[in-house]
Specification:
With 423 residues, the chain is an alpha/beta fold. It folds into three domains: 75 residues, no CATH class; 68 residues; 171 residues, Rossmann fold, CATH 3.40.50. Helix content is 37%, strand content 18%. It is built from eleven helices and eleven strands. The strands form three sheets. Strands 8-7-5-9-10-11 form a six-stranded mixed beta sheet, with helices on both faces. It has a three-stranded antiparallel beta sheet with strand order 4-3-6. It starts with 18 loop residues before the first helix and ends in a 5-residue tail after the last helix.
């Protein structure tokens, strides 16, 4: 079995280990750590890289070996405590061995700590938003939003072992060996023919034959010294990203900042919207985002004010929905734009206003929207707003309603809302 060993110096930005193959192999453990990191972080560093800890037992290499088979009885030297048929008690904790460092202390023995693997910001975001997409994104008249797709871009002399093209590499190796040994093999054939003639000719001096044989051996060694494959032969599949024109889209972010939204609830809403913002900017280009904050009155704000303003007040949810409709009608015609919206609230609303919200959604927003998601962040029982939105789900397939109780629910709910639909 041939082994390919890449001894070249790493290009800039390349790790000494095969990162992509490693991430693919242990994606389950890495994605679990990534999802847990989302809930631990503050809103200001949610897009940073992450250190992933993987138990040593999960990175062990599988091996094949010949089993002994049959029933065997052994007497080990030094045994002075046990007889045949005795049951051996399980060793108590505190001994040496492999583990993550838990258990009682011991004054002897060695162990192995968990394997620590650090992923970059781009790898972190890629894993965070894998298999997510804006639902029901369709072509519109104006094409400005751009998605990126990975495509095969021929072959390259530099790459990681996971992308080696075996056929191309062997073809290059074969061509190199032909070029380097063709002349030597031709001369070798001539020397062998000459040796055969001399051996069949009576009276030939032994010294001449010995010298000819030495030339043949030297030439054969030179031919054999040509390596089967060299670093110059390696060819790698080249992958690149290109822009894939798609329809332009706008995402409306509606957040309740009324007095009933305490600081913990607002922080959870901010985490959700930061995840949404990172997902949109990581996946799509030229996608517009409109931020709307509301209490009794709604106001369009910029990104900084949306996340950090301290303004508060009562609660009239329909004010945000009406403002969204006005902005959409004025700046984002439905025949030219894909309309999306994400609303976060604790569900507290004037009882008389909840039916108004349902009416605005049913008559103005849902008919022109591709997807409307509502996230209710509360530990209390659901109120009238949740029930009105749930009723809309029976008549409209483009509205989704999810409930967040605590920080750990944010990422699973986010993935559920924006998971890629089967085509």
């Amino acid at each position: 079995m041939a082994n390919f060993i890449d001894r070249r110096l790493n290009a800039k930005g390349k790790s000494t280990v095969n990162r992509q193959r490693f991430i693919e192999r242990y994606k389950k453990q890495i994605k679990k750590s990534v999802s847990e990191a989302v809930t631990r972080r503050s809103v200001t560093d949610i897009d940073k890289g992450e250190k992933i800890s993987i138990p040593t037992r999960d990175i062990s290499e599988p091996i094949f070996h010949q089993g002994q088979g049959g029933i065997r009885e052994r007497v080990h030297p030094g045994n002075d405590q046990f007889n045949q048929g005795d049951q051996i008690e399980r060793p108590k904790g505190g001994g040496a061995g492999e583990g993550s460092g838990e258990g009682d202390a011991s004054n002897s023995g060695e162990g192995k700590d968990e394997f620590l693997f650090e992923i970059s910001n781009d790898e972190y975001l890629e894993l965070l938003f894998e298999d997510l997409a804006l639902p029901d994104l369709q072509q519109t008249n104006a094409k400005q939003m751009v998605e990126f797709e990975t495509y095969r871009a021929g072959f390259t002399n530099v790459g990681v072992p996971a992308n080696i093209n075996i056929v191309r590499s062997l073809r290059s190796s074969h061509a190199r060996r032909i070029a380097m040994t063709a002349g030597k093999k031709k001369k070798l054939a001539q020397l062998k023919a000459e040796l055969s003639n001399l051996e069949n000719t009576p009276g030939t001096q032994a010294e001449v034959i010995i010298d000819l044989k030495q030339q043949i051996d030297d030439l054969q060694k030179k031919i054999d010294s040509v390596p089967f494959i060299d670093s110059f032969d390696l060819r790698f599949n080249n992958f690149a990203k290109r822009e894939k024109p798609s329809s332009q889209a706008v995402m409306f972010c509606l957040m309740d900042v009324s007095g009933s939204m305490d600081q913990a609830t607002k922080d959870m809403a901010k985490r959700f919207y930061i995840l949404l913002y990172l997902f949109l900017t990581q996946t799509y280009k030229n996608l517009e985002v409109v931020y709307i904050r509301h209490h009794t009155q709604a106001k369009e704000v910029d990104e900084h004010e949306f996340f950090y303003s301290q303004e508060t007040g009562g609660t009239i949810v329909s004010s945000a929905l009406n403002l969204m409709h006005e902005i959409q009608q004025e700046r984002y015609p439905a025949d030219e734009w894909n309309i999306y919206a994400a609303q976060a609230s604790d569900g507290d609303n004037w009882a008389d206003d909840s039916p108004v919200c349902k009416q605005v959604l049913a008559e103005k927003i849902l008919p022109v929207s591709r997807y409307f998601s509502y996230i209710e962040i509360t530990r209390r029982a659901h109120q009238t707003l949740w029930r009105e939105y749930e009723n809309l789900q029976q008549d409209y397939a483009n509205i989704a309603v999810q409930h967040i109780r605590e920080v750990d629910d944010i990422y699973p709910v986010f993935r559920e809302l924006f998971k890629k639909q089967p085509s």
